[in-house]
């Protein structure tokens, strides 16, 4: 697509995903179709978290000022971005209340009440909530919002640093699997010190590349060590009868997961949805000809019942408009499979199948339709993942250098490469490159350190 | 139970439903067990709404001051209860933003953009969100909150008043079915003029009675007529080519649904949960004796797999504590069915079943266990509904009077009856009684007008 930004805005509107016309900057409305994509997407994440023993909870939105300010680094990272509630009715409040920018402070305040001895640990909880950032940068729907409508944040507490380390690994595996399910390719980098989460020991982040070649962070995992537990006095009695502070991790995924599904898989015709998050997986379109309407409707209904019973999300489009318009509508909305039912196919005991991801159209014997569809939905999912991976590979470039080359020249090469190829540039790791001032030289961000095909690289790119 | 209020607080804590110790008045935390009850409960409501063509959406939390103030009656009803955001970061905002107390104004602002002609109607949408009221009254967990954590609000728009009337009827039927599913008995009253929703034509409300004899509103349905549509200029082109404003309804259910499940069904031992919202429907407790552990564990696991596969939410309690303590724990948490597995029962090819709702304990042949459990879960649901209905019937008293009796004497009788019997008093309808000043005379609220066994009554009671 030529102009990604334009395409993206248009598709949000036309596919009825998210309405940006709300009268507050950075706030919008999830429309029914978009809401369903969101629901199926976060249901996958919920399942993955629950399978690994996480339990869902729900914390208040409001955080008293003194509680949010308790951890020094943390508040520094957020103080310019917090929305403050100062009045209740017509009266000023005694203490200002923040709209949560994230929930470390309220959750760890409560953990203090729940943790006494080692047997109370580990705690592994998550919530899916709205969070708020007073963004001064340019906002973008589902990418940079003032009301992040969907923030899945998980928080854990453990008896040892080793356990916390393992939890970080588990979180990374869960997120890998989540993005794998969505067919979204990721590069996982350990963020540099100067770009870690405020209050964390270190941060591991998931990035992907959008069709305009810009890098976007779509998930983060933080090892908090004992930074917060000391502040919030999360002390527990150890197995040996001593005292220690708990070791903590937290990890989050936002509406950007939805933005990525749209951006990564879409094409000129519109959305292409992975079948597991598609609100409609199969659209059936009856092709009506005079005198043959009844047999077509009859066949349509039979197919519908058959697929419905097999658990497929199926819909019949029986609107009184031309089939061509129907085709366009559902292609725009990214429905993975279309079935056309016409009198001639009925005679020949076949149905016509159209695949949104490849554009292929073919016939299948009507007795084989059910197996074909179930099989096809899997195939589409796999093919979409493969295609997306190929696309991102074209956006990954290695810039090599000899050890004795001056840093300015490395920077120059990286900058040129970024200009030409966009996406992510991988630079073999060295201390002299891995410095904050290198970012200025290349006019891009250091994403961090990653392993790529067994080698250690510095990842850089221009980010959202 | 002797002291309902105490019992209620204790059960929220002990059954780990909702933690009130959050440092803001009227705000608390849904704990994992409570969150699951909430999820299953609102999943029922979601299903019922979707079956009737409602679509789920998600609107922003924040409402600009001028938008909230647009409908005069509406803002008057809420202005003393609104939390205001006045600052972003360290800067004052140009316009104050309200935390939604309810979402008529933001939703109807957007409807203006969606509605052009009759073909755009009806619109039937809902969302499940947090809403805020700066309550100055005494707050109570899940009953009167400053952050209402769960508010299901539905909003509809129609081409005629008749359609809106029918929508009100549909909403009432949906809510009836919802509370029926939860086994919560309700009295449905049309609220008096002076107590209708701010901006509505009329309000129909669902009330139930808590064990302390106080009445609580647990659902409302409003016919808004054209009040909001005129304010928000929701004009559409009619089928005949003319212009009209849409006719609207809205209806809501909150966390009070969860409070009601707890309050209505619980007993001295703790919660009793309807099987359809119980996080654990069947708890299996192995009774271990030396030398017989393996066969008991083996049987336990087999039962678990069998029930799990049949879709039952089942759990094994294999903690290393006395069975008696386990029994208490799960009775407290309201698990509908307990299965005990001991060596003697295994020899006799039976299992022991305990029903939480009746306290009955009995044996079942192990080959019949699956049918028995599925059947039992249905039976429990029905029995709980029946019992709850009987309980509320004891809280409904008719106070009759002759037409020529002075109003003061009627008031006196009603007041006495309320004092003695509590709950809801039904007074045969008459204009002289159905006046706002009657409330002072009886020191209770007029709930409205209801039909009870074919007759028209005024309903009164002391409310939460």
Automatic annotation (TrEMBL), chains A, B:
Gene3D superfamilies: Anticodon-binding domain, Bira Bifunctional Protein, Domain 2, C-terminal domain of ProRS. Its EC number is 6.1.1.15. One of its GO terms (biological process) is prolyl-tRNA aminoacylation. Residues 32-274 form the Aminoacyl-transfer RNA synthetases class-II family profile domain. One of its GO terms (cellular component) is aminoacyl-tRNA synthetase multienzyme complex. CDD domains: ProRS_core_arch_euk. It is found in: Cytoplasm. Pfam families: HGTP_anticodon, ProRS-C_2, tRNA-synt_2b. It catalyses: tRNA(Pro) + L-proline + ATP = L-prolyl-tRNA(Pro) + AMP + diphosphate. GO terms for molecular function: ATP binding; proline-tRNA ligase activity. Keywords: Aminoacyl-tRNA synthetase, ATP-binding, Cytoplasm, Ligase, Nucleotide-binding, Protein biosynthesis. PROSITE patterns: AA_TRNA_LIGASE_II. The keyword ATP-binding applies. Catalyzes the attachment of proline to tRNA(Pro) in a two-step reaction: proline is first activated by ATP to form Pro-AMP and then transferred to the acceptor end of tRNA(Pro). Homodimer. Consists of three domains: the N-terminal catalytic domain, the anticodon-binding domain and the C-terminal extension. Belongs to the class-II aminoacyl-tRNA synthetase family. ProS type 3 subfamily. HAMAP family: Pro_tRNA_synth_type3 (MF_01571). This is Proline--tRNA ligase. The lineage of its organism: Archaea, Methanobacteriati, Methanobacteriota, Methanomada group, Methanococci. The gene is proS.
